[in-house]
């Protein structure tokens, strides 16, 4: 018998309580005394509903809070005002007046005449609408519309063929710049009247009259026309005015510019812009011009019209010749101060009788004015000589078929119209200097020859 069994039997015999079997060992749990006290010794908190104050007490609390808030707000206002007075008071913006019927977009739009304060170093800048109606009204009587009627021309290689039909070839504008005892004088661009068989001028009152070229300078793109007083009614003479000429030298970039002319041939119109640049160098047909640049719209038909300053004075002659479809908002005008002497010379040219006019002897010629045409055939721009009259001054001077005339004295020659214009105010017997190009083994070389002009031969009856 085992010792354990013996001890158990012995205990039962002695009347002792039976010993229970040993329980299986379990994992011992350790208790933190501090956590135990928190869990078992924490007093129980009983939640009780707070008692509501009486109605009188609530009233006095509300009044007291209002008084306290007013005192704090008043103190803050006084403090801010004191600081504002100490460190500089800002000017209050005037409150906008409410306009009945306006919406939010209308309120946000900039108002005419509003003052924009940019900084303390920059003065006030005012933006206001520009009314040029008075300037336009005073300038309209001195601006005319010009219609160019020409024969239709057909080109085939180096030959030009003209039809007998005279049609409207183009429209432009002009400025009345003076008068003499017999004529009203009008300045315009040369390209407006180039090649015209007949020129018609329309005045401010709507009446029309034929005009003749008094003098022209293609190199400066200028021409002066003359309209006889005998072709004008008394009411037209009363309605028209001579333009007031200003100084383009005094023009400043940013000044207002007003263009008046016969835009697109629809009649007189006005466009407004600003002077964008002065002394702008523009090269057209190998000629460099010094022009005024403006963003006032200048369209075909405006050529020869007036560019005015804010006082209604002519500061330039508009020209649509220098427009380009690649750009927008760029118009050009010939500065009036640069051409006053030339206008005076053209205006005072003496009218030469038909039988006294000079004759060179170029029977047929082709105008070489197109850049692509000149580059394709590798020839200079000018008047290509197709035929020379026998026994003429040109033949005597040695001018040949195939030569290209580019200048006669100081006049630039681009075609037959330039040659005819030069001869129209030159008397027979005058010696002139002619610059031409002649092809030698396919290469054009410049030559200068002197020619004594003949009288125009009489037509055979």
Description:
By secondary structure, the protein is of the alpha+beta class. Among the domains are: 135-239, Thrombin, subunit H (Beta Barrel), CATH 2.40.10.10; 248-347, Beta Barrel (Thrombin, subunit H); 354-455, PDZ domain (Pdz3 Domain). It has helices spanning 3-13, 33-40, 55-87, 104-108, 133-139, 190-193, 234-239, 340-347, 371-377, 393-397, 416-424; strands at 115-116, 125-126, 143-156, 159-179, 183-188, 198-202, 208-217, 222-228, 256-262, 268-284, 287-294, 306-308, 314-319, 331-335, 358-359, 362-368, 382-388, 404-408, 411-412, 431-440, 443-452, 454-455. The strands form 5 sheets. The protein has a 6-stranded antiparallel beta barrel with strand order 3-4-5-8-7-6. A 6-stranded antiparallel β-barrel has the order 9-10-11-14-13-12. A hairpin with a 2-residue loop joins strand 3 (143-156) and strand 4. The longest helix has 33 residues, at 55-87. The protein is elongated, with a radius of gyration of 50 Å. The N and C termini lie far apart (179 Å). The relative contact order is 0.08. Mean pLDDT is 76; it is low at 8-13, 23-31, 42-48 and 89-128.
């Amino acid at each position: 018998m085992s010792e354990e069994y013996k001890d158990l039997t012995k205990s039962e015999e002695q009347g002792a309580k039976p010993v229970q079997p040993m329980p299986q060992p379990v994992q011992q749990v350790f208790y933190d005394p501090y956590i135990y006290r928190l869990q078992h010794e924490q007093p129980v908190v009983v939640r009780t509903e707070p008692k509501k104050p009486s109605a009188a007490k609530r009233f006095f609390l509300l009044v007291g809070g209002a008084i306290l808030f007013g005192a704090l707000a008043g103190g803050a206002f006084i403090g801010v005002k004191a600081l504002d007075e100490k460190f500089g008071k800002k000017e209050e913006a005037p409150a906008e007046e409410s306009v009945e019927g306006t919406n939010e977009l209308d309120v946000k739009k900039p108002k005419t005449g509003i003052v924009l304060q940019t900084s303390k170093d920059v003065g006030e800048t005012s933006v206001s609408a520009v009314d040029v109606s008075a300037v336009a009204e005073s300038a309209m009587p001195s601006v005319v519309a010009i219609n160019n009627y020409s024969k239709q021309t057909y080109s085939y290689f180096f030959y030009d063929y003209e039809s007998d039909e005279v049609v409207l070839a183009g429209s432009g504008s002009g400025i009345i710049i003076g008068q003499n005892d017999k004529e009203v004088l009008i300045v315009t661009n040369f390209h407006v009247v180039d090649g015209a068989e007949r020129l018609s001028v329309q005045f401010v009152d709507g009446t029309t009259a034929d005009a003749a070229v008094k003098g022209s300078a293609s190199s400066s793109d200028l021409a002066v026309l003359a309209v006889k007083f005998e072709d004008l009614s008394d009411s037209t003479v009363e309605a028209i005015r001579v333009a007031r000429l200003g100084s383009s030298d005094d023009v400043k970039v940013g000044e207002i510019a007003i263009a008046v002319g016969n835009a697109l041939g629809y009649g007189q119109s006005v466009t407004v812009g600003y002077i964008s640049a002065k002394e702008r160098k523009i090269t057209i047909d190998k000629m460099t011009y010094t022009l005024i640049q403006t963003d006032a719209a200048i369209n075909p038909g405006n050529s020869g019209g007036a560019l005015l300053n804010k006082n209604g004075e002519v500061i330039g002659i508009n020209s649509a010749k220098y427009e380009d479809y690649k750009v927008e908002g760029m118009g050009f005008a010939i500065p009036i101060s640069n051409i006053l002497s030339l206008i005076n010379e053209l205006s005072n040219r003496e009218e030469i009788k038909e039988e006294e006019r000079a004759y060179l002897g170029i029977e047929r010629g082709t105008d070489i004015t197109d850049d692509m045409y000149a580059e394709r055939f590798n020839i200079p721009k000018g008047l290509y000589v197709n035929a020379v009259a026998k026994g003429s001054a040109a033949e005597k001077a040695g001018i040949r078929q195939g030569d290209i005339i580019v200048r006669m004295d100081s006049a630039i020659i681009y075609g037959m119209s330039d040659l005819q214009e030069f001869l129209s105010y030159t008397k027979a017997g005058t010696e002139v200097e002619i610059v031409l190009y002649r092809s030698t083994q396919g290469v054009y070389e410049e030559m200068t020859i002197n020619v004594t002009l003949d009288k125009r031969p009489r037509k055979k009856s």
